[in-house]
C-alpha cells in the first residue's frame, strides 16, 4: 500500500469515528424519536463506511462482506422503525 493511501485511509477513519460520535450524541440527546432514528441511520452508514475503508486498507474481502451485512440489517431496521413511528406497530 502506498503511503498516500495509508494516510488517506487513516484520515478517513478518524473522520468517520468523529461522525459516529456525533451521531451517538444525537441518539442520546435527540429531542424526538424521528431524530433518534435518523441518527441511527447515520450511525449504521458510518459503520458500513468504516468497514469499507478497513477493507481497502487491509485488502481483505471479509470487510466488504461485513459492510454488505451492515447495510442489509440497517435498511431492515430503518424500515421497521419508520413503520413503527408511522403506525405504532411493526407486524400487522
TrEMBL record:
<protein>
    <submittedName>
        <fullName>K+/H+ antiporter subunit F</fullName>
    </submittedName>
</protein>
<dbReference type="InterPro" id="IPR007208">
    <property type="entry name" value="MrpF/PhaF-like"/>
</dbReference>
<keyword id="KW-0812">Transmembrane</keyword>
<dbReference type="GO" id="GO:0015385">
    <property type="term" value="F:sodium:proton antiporter activity"/>
</dbReference>
<keyword id="KW-0472">Membrane</keyword>
<comment type="similarity">
    <text>Belongs to the CPA3 antiporters (TC 2.A.63) subunit F family.</text>
</comment>
<dbReference type="GO" id="GO:0005886">
    <property type="term" value="C:plasma membrane"/>
</dbReference>
<keyword id="KW-0050">Antiport</keyword>
<keyword id="KW-0406">Ion transport</keyword>
<keyword id="KW-1133">Transmembrane helix</keyword>
<dbReference type="Pfam" id="PF04066">
    <property type="entry name" value="MrpF_PhaF"/>
</dbReference>
<keyword id="KW-1003">Cell membrane</keyword>
<keyword id="KW-0813">Transport</keyword>
Amino acid at each position: 500500500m502506498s503511503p498516500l493511501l495509508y494516510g488517506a485511509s487513516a484520515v478517513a477513519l478518524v473522520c468517520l469515528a468523529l461522525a459516529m460520535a456525533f451521531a451517538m450524541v444525537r441518539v442520546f440527546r435527540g429531542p424526538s424519536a424521528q431524530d433518534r432514528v435518523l441518527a441511527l441511520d447515520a450511525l449504521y452508514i458510518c459503520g458500513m463506511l468504516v468497514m469499507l475503508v478497513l477493507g481497502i486498507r487491509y485488502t481483505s474481502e471479509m470487510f466488504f462482506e461485513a459492510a454488505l451485512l451492515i447495510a442489509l440489517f440497517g435498511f431492515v431496521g430503518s424500515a421497521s422503525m419508520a413503520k413503527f413511528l408511522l403506525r405504532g406497530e411493526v407486524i400487522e
